[in-house]
Amino acid sequence: FYLSLEDNLMRIFASDRVAGMMKKLGMQEGEAIEHPWVTKAIENAQRKVEAHNFNIRKQLLEYDDVANDQRRVIYQQRNEIMATDDVSDIIEQMRRDVVNAVIDTYIPPGSLDEMWDVPGLEKAIEEEFGLKLPIARWLEEDEELHEETLRERVVEALESAYREKEAKVGAPVLRHFEKSVLLQVLDQAWKEHLAAMDYLRQGIHLRGYAQKNPKQEYKREAFEMFQAMLERIKQEVVGIVSKVQVHGEEDVEAVEAQRMQMLPEMNYQHAEVDLLHAAPEEEEAAAEKAAAAGGAPAQPFVRQGRKIGRNEPCPCGSGKKYKHCHGKLS
Predict the structure, then answer these.
(1) How many domains does the chain have?
(2) Is residue 51 one of the residues assigned to a domain?
(3) pTM to 2 decimal places
(4) Tens digit of pLDDT for each residue in 164-178?
(5) Is there a domain that residue 14 lies in?
(6) 313 pairs with which residues across the strands?
């Protein structure tokens, strides 16, 4: 093949001495160069390019491993939700977690009665769950009502209101509604999380200027973002199923139609690193291939890798068991 000393490969990696030596030797422009010095310079340049590209691919895979571990957790939980028709146990556990988190904000654990923000708690419960509870009156009527019993009473009141909703619309309709809402919120939260992860990755290298390891910082912040996403899923799901008034199967079908409309948008792609730009013909071929793939029928799901056991270490790297970490959602 033909190679010019002005090509990017030679200009970046080969020193200007090669061109200088050729001029001193009287080589004319356009004349074929077959000197072993030039051949060696090309080999060294190619070796540097290959090593540089290998290092980039290695870095890319290490960053991708973080998202892949989180993807395994989310996909397993989603498949378990898809495989069952009754997610009421998941919703109930989510409700308890969200209620306890709200109460902790206004009634800190182990705090004195004077530190309680009862009006703020009443307002927060009404905003989060659409239910107005007379907590201040409960405390006035029962002086022995302490923190733990108050928590149980609030949870019981919310569950009682939810059972009344179930009695009105029927258990099958509410179960279908719960599942549709859970899948819709999970899909949307995961899509937003992937976009946030990509944004974090684009600027994480700047942490190196602060004498910090960018990969370690990326893993730490990605884990914190994943935890925040799971908490956000719980809050949104519990808020929707608690506040939305379901009158019949039509409302459930509307939620399901909205979720199905979101599915084509769930194909998330991240920019891949490539130092050498593809030729126009290759770009057109890739575009045609992507367009053809977009119109192809959906393929059945095939599990990649083994299923994560509930007592096994969580793949996120926290050191906790899966059931006590990211397996809480399921």
Answers:
(1) 3
(2) no
(3) 0.62
(4) 888 888 888 888 888
(5) yes
(6) 321
Which residue from 57, 83, 139, 58 is spatially nearest to 106, judged by alpha carbons? 139
Question: 30-81 pLDDT, tens per residue?
Answer: 666 666 766 777 777 778 778 777 776 777 777 788 888 889 989 999 999 9
Pairwise CA distance, residues 19 & 11, whole Å: 10
What average pLDDT does range 292-313 have in this prediction?
57
- Residue 299 in any domain: the answer is no
Better-predicted residue by pLDDT, 290 or 263: 263
Domain check: are 162 and 174 in the same one?
Answer: no
- Amino acid (one-letter) located at 106: Y
Amino acid at 163: R
AA letter at 267: N
CB-based contact 222:163 (threshold 8 Å): no
> Are residues 117 and 149 both part of a single domain?
yes
Q: Which residues span the domain enclosing 256?
A: 170-265+310-330
The candidate with the shortest Cα–Cα distance to 173, out of 110, 98, 85, is 85
Shared domain check, 30 and 143: no
Q: Please, which residues have CB within 8 angstroms of residue 245's CB and are 6 or more apart in sequence? A: 165
Residue 25: pLDDT band with limits 50, 70, 90: low
- The gap between the terminal CA atoms of the chain, to the nearest Å, is 59
